[in-house]
Amino acid sequence: MPNDNHTKQDLLAEIQRERTKLVALLAPLDEAGMLVAVRDDGWTAKDILAHLTAWEQRLLRWLERWRTTGDPGRPEVGVSWDGFDALNDKDHLATKETPLPDVRRASTDAYEAVIGVLDSMTDDDLAVHPETPDGPTWSWIFSANTWEHYQEHREEIEAWGKEKSG
Predict the structure, then answer these.
(1) Tens of pLDDT along 103-113?
(2) Does the structural domain 8-159 have CATH classification 2.60.40.150?
(3) Whole-angstrom distance, CA of residue 19 vs CA of residue 17
(4) How far apart, in whole angstroms, are the C-alpha atoms of residue 130 and residue 142?
(5) Distances 139 to 30, 59, 78, 112 between C-alpha atoms, Å
(6) What one-character-per-residue DSSP string does 102-146 give?
(7) Under 8 Å CB-to-CB from 130, ≥6 apart: which residues?
(8) For residues 135 and 6, is the Cβ–Cβ distance under 8 A?
(9) Is residue 3 over pLDDT 60?
(10) Does the predicted TM-score (pTM) go above 0.90?
């Protein structure tokens, strides 16, 4: 299991850098553009934005649960990582009919909440292994559920755009 120990400042910079790229990619898309399938499974840019938001919200719940119980409950209480795809499917179904303005607002709110929580943490907090001594650190968990996740899906949307433009 990775034990990435980025400092808070490094994480904040990476998150802001990748979020800025994602927002710049999505900004020119009007509602019709956000609702075009960008993946073979039919997911749209709106669906991807909602997906990223769901994992940011999950990250916030993990941290809060860990602070109150000592167990982050990842990925969700009663769900193992084997159920990862089912979580994504559940999230997708839950947000599929959500209007685009609401998805955009939820995305901004979740992002700002993640930045606020991260900003309140110390480098020592980020070096903690919340599950097991050889498990991931909070630094790794933040990276995987923010900037690395933004980058993964931004690149997916960019590839679709290049393919579409021929």
Answers:
(1) 999 999 999 99
(2) no
(3) 6
(4) 12
(5) 35, 12, 24, 17
(6) HHHHHHHHHHHHHHHHHHH--HHHHT--SS-TTS--HHHHHHHHT
(7) 62, 66, 71, 72, 138, 141
(8) no
(9) no
(10) yes
Range 15-20 contact pairs with CB under 8 angstroms and sequence separation of 24 or more: 15/114, 15/115, 15/118, 15/142, 15/146, 15/147, 15/150, 16/115, 17/147, 18/146, 18/147, 18/148, 18/150, 18/151, 18/154, 19/111, 19/146, 19/147, 19/150
**Structure tokens given for 133:** 């001594």
Integer Cα distance of 97 and 104 in angstroms: 13
Residue position matching structure tokens 């795809």:
85
Structure tokens at 160: 């679709």
Joined tokens for residue 68 = 């109150």
| Token pair of 149 as six digits | 């996740």
Tokens in use for 5?
Answer: 């120990």
